[in-house]
Amino acid sequence: MIISFQQTSIGRVALAESGGSITNLCFCTDTLPQQAEIGETELIREAFRQFEAYLSGKLRIFSVPVVPSGTPFMLRVWQTLSSIPYGTTLTYGDIAVAVGSPFAARAVGRASNRNPVPIFIPCHRVIGCNGALTGYRGGIGLKKRLLELERGSLGYKI
Question: Does the annotation count 26 as an active-site position?
Fold first, then answer.
C-alpha cells in the first residue's frame, strides 16, 4: 500500500492506493494504515486532483477506482452509500432498508463510521431520522460543510 499526503482546503489529508485502487482517505486525526509506505502514484495524483475539484464544487462524481476493505455487511452499506446522489441525504434507516436489514440503522451507523474512504464513499450524506447531522469521522463541522458545498452547487442550502 502506497500513501501520500496533501494539504487541502479541509486540512491535511492522506490517500492510499493498493492494487490499482484507492483504499483509504485519512484525515489528520486518523490512524494511518500500518502497512502503508509513503510514496506517490499516478492514481493518487489523479485522486487528489479529483478531490480538490470536488471540494471546489467543480466535480460531483469521482471516477477513480475505490475499493474499501470490510465485512460483507460493511461492503453492502458502502456500496449503497456510493449510490446516494450528490446533494441528497438519506437516513441511517433508509440505508438499513436498502441493504435488506430494516432494523439495523445502528449497525449502518457503525459501518458508515468505519468507511475507510470518506467523501469518495459519501457517508457524509447520511443523517439522523430527525434530520440532524449525526456523527462523522471528520467532525460534524466538516459534514455540514460538505453538505452545504453540494447543496450550494445545486442552488440551495441545508
Answer: no
44/87 same-domain check: no
Catalytic residue among 26, 28, 123, 129: 123
CA-to-CA dists, residue 70 to 57, 87, 93, angstroms: 30, 26, 20
Let me know if residue 62 belongs to a domain: no
Residue in this structure with the C-alpha cell 470490510, named with its chain if needed: 70
Secondary structure of residue 53 in the 3-state scheme: helix
137 and 76 in a single domain? The answer is yes
Residues 36 and 87 in one domain: no
Q: Which domain holds residue 37?
A: 2-55
CATH number at residue 118: 1.10.10.10
Contact 114, 145 (CB under 8 A): no
Instruction: List the chain pLDDT tens, one digit each, 158 residues.
Output: 999 999 999 999 999 999 999 999 999 888 888 888 999 999 999 999 999 999 999 999 999 999 999 999 999 999 999 999 999 999 999 999 999 999 999 999 999 999 999 999 999 999 998 888 988 889 999 999 999 999 886 555 54
